[in-house]
Amino acid sequence: MEQTYPGVFETLFSVNVNEHTEDKPSSNGTKLTYLSWPFAWAEVKRRYPDAHYEVKKHDGLPYICDPETGYMVFTEVTIGGITHEMWLPVMDGSNNAMKKTPYTIKTKSRDITVRPATMMDINKAIMRCLVKNLAMFGMGLYIYAGEDLPVPEQEQIAEEKKQAEVARAETIEQIKQAMAEKGYAYTPKCKRQLDEMDQDGLESYLESLSKMPDKKKEEEKKTA
Prior knowledge:
By secondary structure, this protein is an alpha+beta fold. It has 2 domains: 8-148, Enolase-like, domain 1, CATH 3.30.390; 153-214. The protein contains 8 helices and 8 strands, in the order H-E-E-H-E-E-E-E-E-E-H-H-H-H-H-H. It has helices at residues 8-13, 37-47, 119-135, 141-144, 151-182, 188-195, 199-209, 215-223; strands at residues 21-25, 31-35, 52-55, 64-66, 70-79, 82-89, 103-106, 111-114. Strands 3, 4, 5 and 6 form a 4-stranded antiparallel sheet that branches. Strand 4 and strand 5 form a beta hairpin. The radius of gyration is 29 Å and the shape is elongated. The model has no long low-confidence stretch (mean pLDDT 87).
């Protein structure tokens, strides 16, 4: 009897995999993100030693092939008595399905020739299929949603960003008040300059205002 584990998805979904991904630009201008399968599998096995996967075979081959649509590979992962299946077409670097023979895709700018699949392509597709299979358990799932960080880190960064925006707004208000007290006009040019400053720059500017001449007092002396 296999051991069961509570919170498998939550545990694996919270793993930050960003340092183990690789971005590859494709020929059609899109960016493809790949997660290292050794890392993904190691992280799963480290937490769940009885986890195992299977490459599904068809007539003894680790793929199916249709002359019209191309190759497809399948994997199956079991963790704590829970099994998920996954499938993935064998694709080239532009996510075009690969077939037994080359074929041409016509675009507005040019014709693209998709080469036939080799066993290396099938092998790579199987391991990418395994990574996608592990994502069904939470491992690196946010990559497939086009996200950058796991949810807990996203929330933390969002909160830090919010606090930084509040601090920035407060510092700008203090600058406006200090300028008004000393008789300096808050002009559009001044606003643009402040917009280009980071928080450290704003705080330095606020400090420098205390050393600037007081125009209001100078005007009062002139009119006295």
